[in-house]
Specification:
- The structure is a single chain.
- About 35% of the residues lie in helices and about 15% in strands.
- Strands 11-9-10-1-4-2-3-13 form an eight-stranded mixed sheet. A five-stranded antiparallel sheet has the order 5-6-7-8-12, covered by helices on one side.
- The chain is of the alpha+beta class.
- It is globular, with a radius of gyration of 26 Å.
- The C terminus is likely disordered.
- The longest helix is centred in the middle third of the chain and has 17 residues.
Length: about 625
């Protein structure tokens, strides 16, 4: 996934406009970059394992014909774009999820690791079979699954082909020529005219100078860290994982154990979490939401901005927004470096099948992962269950960027697909924060609550000084945007539609071929690279995870029996070695060191009923 852009005109594009196109493309990804330019009667292509600003300082001036990208690395880290094959050069935004099958259809073999390579192969085969450049885009979209927003240069024909199956591509008129970008906003910024979206059969073919010879690609490679490692395997590492079966007291109604922070039981063995529970999955009439969104409907254009992680609930929420509410959405994904490639593929799969534009905001992934590594190393030195949440603090900037996108798109309404049963009091509870049983939202707000939480976190940080590192401003900023900024024009889909796990899973499987994780049966958090680690720590040390709290809420809602919940969590709490391996590899922490730190931490369930949640003693 990336931001693509370009310009073809009689004269050079002015510097300010070119810079604006480049800057906005980098918002969508900065892991690598590529450019194709035409100068002195010849095409030249460049690509690098560096942000595009770095690349532009090392290549000739852009001139009057160029196209490029700033890439969020997803599939194929060792191969950057532009991709050149069979005299076709391609820049591609998106992920093709069925590229391996397409090669067999074409009777060809890939030469690279990147999924994008199949696009020039399809175009070349189509042209060789007597097809035209005007019909080449339709052939690509016919064969591919997943988002394809593409600029394809066929220099032998003197044609540049622009096309997209989900609308993540816009063209406009500028300086007597044509300019394009992955989003409308940068074209508005540079004062382009006649901005139109490229989608489906509406491909754009642009005449460009012909070039019969092959185009050399100059590359600057510096990929020292695999940004998208596979789900690796080591029997020796996997053998380190423990899966104890603690014999402790559980609530007689739900399945919460005695190690749950601030838990107590009545004379019948029912816990206080059950006694104070207020139903969360009793939706209000759908007609209320229809009335609420009515003022936001438009004759043309996007009507709602939808936060979209590619996870189970946001995927189904998007389905409801289109098929039940009848709204035209644009989706927003924040990629902070802990989104697995599975999650990204589901974003691509859903966006393509629904024909929905997906705006990506990508963090500086290398920097974000460095922050995680520093905090994880501090945690390993003094394991403390209340401090595990600092490992996910980097994703809270999600809330900042959605406000920015509302301004850029002009779409004020946003609808969230948050599961109402995903309430995890224990994460703050292990830090010493008692549960607020009156809390109605999954994400709570309030200055006093945040100040209390941060003061307790600060006290825990003092016990492992490694937490005082360069990640602190990023962490605090994320917490601020989540908890203090005013949210407006937003509603929750599952306040009006009952959350039904089976219906959601069946719909995603049947209509979207939604991809599941290979190392677990659950569909929850499978696109989150962090979840396997923190759940292993919670389970090993405390004997339960967020799966226990989630299934307990389902019991209270009458959606599961207690026996069913116990059976489910036994499987769901099983250590997910491949995902653990992925997580520790990408943040650069030794697997053995991290797992042994968890394994040697004293268990909360090995003694009597626990009332203190102090951290484990420091270890050398």
């Amino acid at each position: 996934m990336c931001g693509i852009f370009g310009y073809i005109g009689p004269d050079d594009l002015d510097s300010a406009s070119a810079k604006a196109l480049v800057k906005h493309a980098q918002q969508r990804g900065r892991d690598s970059s590529g450019m194709v330019i035409h100068r002195d009667g010849a095409y030249r292509a460049y690509r690098a394992d560096y942000p595009i600003g770095w690349l532009l300082k090392r290549i000739p001036a852009l001139g009057n014909l160029f196209f490029g990208h700033s890439r969020l690395v997803t599939n194929g880290t060792s191969d950057n774009q532009p991709v050149s094959r069979e005299q076709v050069i391609v820049l591609h935004n998106g992920i093709i999820v069925n590229h391996e099958k397409i090669w067999a259809t074409l009777g060809k073999a890939p030469e690279l690791q990147i999924d994008t390579e199949v696009i020039p192969a399809i175009i070349a085969s189509h042209l060789a079979d007597g097809g035209t450049i005007e019909t080449a885009a339709a052939r690509v979209l016919e064969l591919t699954e997943g988002v394809v927003a593409c600029a394809a240069l066929v220099p032998g024909l003197g044609k540049l082909l622009l096309f997209s199956n989900n609308g993540s591509l816009y063209v406009a008129d500028k300086s007597g020529g044509l300019v394009f970008s992955s989003e409308r906003y940068p074209l508005e910024q540079i004062g382009a005219d006649n901005i139109r979206q490229v989608k489906g059969d509406e491909a754009v073919v642009v005449d460009v100078p012909t070039h019969e010879q092959s185009i050399d690609v100059r590359e600057w490679a510096n990929r020292s860290v695999d940004l998208v490692p596979g789900l690796g395997f080591s029997a020796q590492e996997e053998a380190l994982l423990q899966y104890p079966k603690p014999d402790f007291r559980r609530c007689t109604k739900c399945i919460l154990p005695e190690t749950m922070p601030f838990i107590s039981f009545d004379e019948n063995g029912v816990c206080n979490y059950c006694l104070h529970y207020k139903s969360r999955n009793q939706p209000r009439p759908k007609e209320e939401l229809f009335e609420l969104v009515e003022p936001y409907r438009r004759a043309h254009g996007d009507e709602v901005l939808v936060p979209f992680s590619g996870g189970r609930d946001s995927s189904y929420g998007l389905h409801l927004i289109i098929h039940e509410l009848g709204l035209r959405p644009v989706t927003y994904t924040y990629d902070w470096g802990m989104v697995t490639d599975l999650g990204r593929r589901n974003v691509s799969r859903m966006s393509a099948k629904l024909g929905v534009e997906n705006i990506i905001v990508a963090a500086d992934i290398t920097t974000k992962r460095d922050y995680i590594r520093r905090n994880l190393n501090a945690w390993i030195k003094r394991p403390h269950l209340g401090m595990l949440s600092v490992l996910t603090a980097g994703d809270k900037h999600f809330f900042r960027h959605i406000e920015t996108l509302k301004r850029q798109t002009g779409v004020s309404l946003n609808l969230w697909g948050i599961n109402p049963l995903e309430v995890t009091h224990f994460k703050a509870g292990f830090l010493g924060v008692p549960p607020d049983f009156a809390e109605e939202r999954v994400y709570s707000h309030g200055a006093m609550k945040q100040l209390r939480y941060q003061s307790l976190r600060f006290r825990a940080m003092l016990q492992s000084p490694g937490y005082f590192n360069r990640s602190i401003p990023d962490t605090l900023a994320g917490e601020y945007y989540r908890s203090f900024t005013t949210k407006s024009d937003y509603f929750h889909i599952f306040d009006y539609w009952r959350w039904d796990e089976k219906q959601i899973e069946d719909t995603l499987d049947a209509e979207y071929d939604w991809e599941r994780a290979p190392d677990t049966q659950t569909t929850w958090r499978i696109g989150d690279g962090t979840a396997a680690f923190y759940n292993y720590a919670y389970y090993t040390i405390a004997g339960f995870t967020e799966h226990d709290t989630f299934r307990s809420n389902q019991i209270r809602e009458g959606e599961l029996t207690r026996d069913e919940a116990l059976r489910l969590v036994e499987e769901e709490n099983t250590p997910r070695y491949p995902n653990l391996k992925w997580y520790l590899d990408v943040v650069g922490v030794d697997f053995t060191q991290a797992i042994e730190a968890i394994n040697r931490t004293p268990r909360l369930y090995e003694g009597s009923n626990v009332t203190s949640f102090a951290p484990a003693p420091a270890r050398g």
